[in-house]
Request: fold
Amino acid sequence: MNVNQQAQKLLELVNKNNKEKYSKFVSVASGKGGVGKTNFAVNFSYVLANKFDKKVLLIDADVGMADVHVILNLKPQNSIKSLIEGKKPEDIVLSAKGFDILPGLSGLDSLDTFEDYLINKVITDLAEFSQNYDFIVIDTAAGVDNKVTSFVRASSKSYIITTPEPTAIMDAYALMKSIYKIYDYADFKLVVNMCKNKNEAINTYERLNNSAKRFLNKNIDSPGWLPFSENVKKAIKQKKLVAEEYPSDPFTKAIIEIAAKEVGEEVKVEKENFWNKLMGFLKK
Ligand SMILES: Nc1ncnc2c1ncn2[C@@H]1O[C@H](COP(=O)(O)OP(=O)(O)O)[C@@H](O)[C@H]1O
Ligand SMILES: [Mg+2]
Reply:
């Protein structure tokens, strides 16, 4: 047995004995903005925590529109800067509705300008802190810049949110295509949001999947779709969560189904820590 095989064996053994200790890093991304990423990430976190009893950390990694705290009616005082200045993740984490939120992590790439020992300390702290959670859900910005693709590639899977609009479909395809072509990453789960009905969801999924099959030679998995619902808009206006306020709304039921699938899937053990991977990608 060579060293690599030994390491692999050890990893498998640790995994077998220690399943609970692994956290799942799941990102939420889209090509186009305004398709419902943040609303999905927040309600998905809520459902994982409150319906499935999971420990969940929601990370806001959207620079332009970091609005996780807006939906949750929180006022974060800290950001990545606070970590560099010596605070611990547990000092800056916020709690709401049964899960935790780490605000302001969109600035992680600015770590580059600091000394290595400082970066390492922040990364080690974040890695240790993440072990307290079953799921780490990451809300990203729209688009295909290096920051977004870094968060996606470091995650063990990425929910790609689109709507049935042709522009949203095109942008979702472009995002998946570039991440797959450039980085060979394809752990995507497509979720079509704001659908009028099941037919519209299936048509949208098929359009995207046909392109993926034809041009990328790949099938794209979809764990479900989300209906358009006035209650989503109402809840956001009232700074409430649709999954909490409207438990029998079709949107809530659909998100519970997607979360059930997520919980049912085995944890994929990553060889390298999420945070290390992320920092490596961000630097390029
Ligand atoms: N399923 C839905 N039904 C109705 N409106 C929705 C739905 N999902 C999202 N929206 C609307 O879209 C807006 C943008 O959602 P948001 O999650 O902030 O998008 P993103 O994070 O992708 O920019 C929300 O404020 C809400 O009004
Ligand atoms: Mg958003």
User: Anything to note?
Assistant: The chain has one domain: 22-283.
